[in-house]
Prior knowledge:
The chain has two domains: about 1-200, Rossmann fold (3-Layer(aba) Sandwich), CATH 3.40.50.720; about 215-430, Rossmann fold (3-Layer(aba) Sandwich), CATH 3.40.50. The chain contains 17 helices and 14 strands. It has helices spanning about 10-20, 35-40, 50-60, 70-75, 95-110, 125-140, 160-165, 180-185, 205-235, 240-245, 265-280, 285-310, 335-345, 360-365, 375-380, 400-405, 420-425, and strands at about 1-5, 25-30, 65, 80, 115-120, 145-150, 170-175, 200, 320, 350-355, 370, 385-390, 410-415, 430. The strands form two sheets. The chain has an eight-stranded mixed β-sheet with strand order 3-2-1-4-5-6-7-8, with helices on both faces. Strands 11-10-9-12-13-14 form a six-stranded parallel β-sheet. Helix 9 (about 205-235) packs across helix 11 (about 265-280). The termini are far apart.
Amino acid sequence: MNVCMIGAGYVGLVSGACFAEFGVRVVCADKDESRIAMLERGEIPIYEPGLAAIVQRNLREGRLSFTSDTASAVGQALVVFIAVQTPNGHDGSTDLGAVEAVAREIGRTMDGYKVVVTKSTVPVGTSYRVRAWIEEELASRGASHRFSVASNPEFLREGAAIADFMRPDRVVIGADDDEAIAILRDLYRPLYLIETPFVITNIPTSELTKYAANAFLATKISFINEMANYCEKVGGDVHAIARGIGLDKRIGSKFLHPGPGYGGSCFPKDTRSAAHFARQAGEGFEIIEAAIRVNERQRLRMVEKIERALGGDVTGRTLAVLGLSFKPETDDMRDAPSIEILGALQQRGARVRAFDPAAMANAERVIPGLELCKNEYETCENADALVLLTEWNQFRMLDLARIRSLLREPVLVDLRNVYEPEQMRRAGFRYESVGRS
């Protein structure tokens, strides 16, 4: 089976490389010629553990290739995935410009039966719009090729995307005809061997499933952050509460970790998009709207926490910051809490020295004025406080005596609760965390 993946960004590149690992012939098409040239050399433009090895291996074996000629890639494929970006507008709406452009190009170049699959996260009804755009282009050139449309949302976690694709919790396929379902089942057949659950449904349900999953997880994060904030008022321990409720199998322990709020390419975008299209339909998602508000407030609370740790004023103070990406094991800075938190601290007069194992080049573009350092210890030199903002593994066992000797004041603000309060007090730090005393 030949597959075309249009869009060689995070989702398209990971999905295309993993399909090739299954033995499928995959062409990834992207209009960014510099990105294609990089990929053809086996160079990976994003940080994702394990991805480079899979791309390079399948390039060598001839199962994976890259092109900026979308028309030729579509012509060779039975299954064409649309995996382009769908950013938010200012009002939370979803910009489908790239999806429409791809759909129309498919319609202009289609020369036989195809299954056109929306892999990008899109509002309910978008796949039907894809069908209409393709039909318009076919009609404009007097062609009448048969095709199917389908929805196959991705559930890839940055930093664990390869494992998520190869051993997924589920595969969701939305289609309105048996032929498309049979072809997509065959494409994912290697996953049947590990008994992966398949959810076969209609297109609107499939499109909405991705939003429902991300909105629910984002709500769990906002819930535990609100609980953490209340714990700080009454002397509670949010970690004990998270364990106490997480052991209930109806709730589960995942995503009950307090901190500066959710970020990244999915949760902020998808919650805003879901809230917007629900309002447009006259069915507001009040819980999602609340989760968004809590998340926005949480970042300001972190700024205030850092200020309090330094006596209420950061003017002229130097902050050492460890971690800039929105989560560990990625260089992604999209909607990272660090952007708003550090930007606010800079506006209030703080100087920020920072280190991140992977995201510093991206961070430098979105947080002007950062002083980037070579490692965690250089970052702490002559700083007035250390702020732990992203819980990379290498920050979990810092040499605390060395850190204390490098700081002007023994202040550590741990926004990810990596360390234990009593441990830090014994080490001589004035220690602040989230939801614990």
